[in-house]
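Standup notes, structure subgroup. Blocker cleared on the adenosine-5'-diphosphate input:
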Amino acid sequence: MKVLVLNSGSSSIKYQLLGMENENCIAKGLVDKIGFDESNISYKNQAGYKNKYTAVVKDHLSGIKVILDILMDKENGVINSIEDIAAVGHRMAHGARYFKDSVLVTEDVKEKIVKACEIAPLHNPPQYKGILAIEKVMPGIPNVVCFDTEFHKGIPDYISTYGLPYEWLEKYDIRKYGFHGLSYKYVTRRVGEMFNIDWKKLKIIACHLGNGASVAAVKHGETVDTTMGFTPLQGLIMGTRCGDIDPAIVPYIMKREGYDVDEISDVLNKKSGVLGVSGISSDFRDLEEAASKGDERSRLALEMFIYRVKFYIGAYNAVLNGIDVLIFTGGIGENSTRMRQAICQNLGDLGIIIDLEKNDFKGKERVISPLNNKVKVVVIPTNEELMIARDVKRIIS
Ligand code: ADP
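Run returned:
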């Protein structure tokens, strides 16, 4: 059984075709800068063939057609026709209160997704566009949608409720949902496999550190708390998102700068975080390089990021009354030796110690705490696509 997994962003579609017999990646790639003058298209298949080129891709529907053409290419494709694909899995950030599990897309589900788009206007609509595009080009194929909020459904009410008028919870579902759930689902299960122990017996802090970044406290298979909230804007300082701030800053700046709601939302989501502080980049490679050459604002941005991650590791240690495992994942967590080292520095009293030699690598699965250390510190490259494909298989079977 072959499952196509799509992760659609506002101007990009990440895709992966998985063979579910061995859970292997048959082909994957990205269509980026959709709607721009020139879009970037990349493709890699399991035989080792790689290709990158530019073309005009005006919208998500055209993007899906490009992806299917690449997959069916006579020379370097991996399928003969679209009938070879059993189903399509879509990542969706926000399930709102409607979805507690992945689900087969029906008309009723689509209505609820549209409602969920209201509370996640930046994240859900492009992912919904991906579903509509597949319905057009692959009519009759089952679409399954998987939510990043699902993993966090067990957060207790005294943690998920904000200190705001209770009617807002009742009327508008304003509460903490949490995100990166597909990534947390993969890494928490994987860590159980690595240590040959039921993952549900573990107390885990997982740090998903990518462009979007969050930390989750997971105890006995349930999220207790996580740093993202009603939207993925809360919590850590991220690439371009502000994370936790004093909410009073928002009306103050709106008045001073004359911003409307869309403008302030744009600044908080796309022009803040380490980009806003450094004024240089949201990419940690650029910031690490600039800081090493003495750029003060890049140093400040990195220190702020490190502090906030440490802060939540400390808080969640208290919440969980100690942990068994600390996991790093996401682009920064998987690749940045320097960030992992800085985050774990001086956490010895919490049992969190890393071996600097073991930590000196990138992009692989590895235990980086000393042998026999009580708290295992592990790096696990995430695999959200596999989590989606497994749910697709479960639901269509
Ligand atoms: P997304 O949230 O878009 O999926 P990723 O998980 O791919 O993001 O993470 C992207 C981030 O990972 C970028 O900030 C990038 O700088 C960072 N990153 C990737 N490789 C490295 C590296 N070798 N050193 C430091 N940061 C890295």
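Discussed briefly. The mean pLDDT is 96.
Next: hand off to the docking folks.
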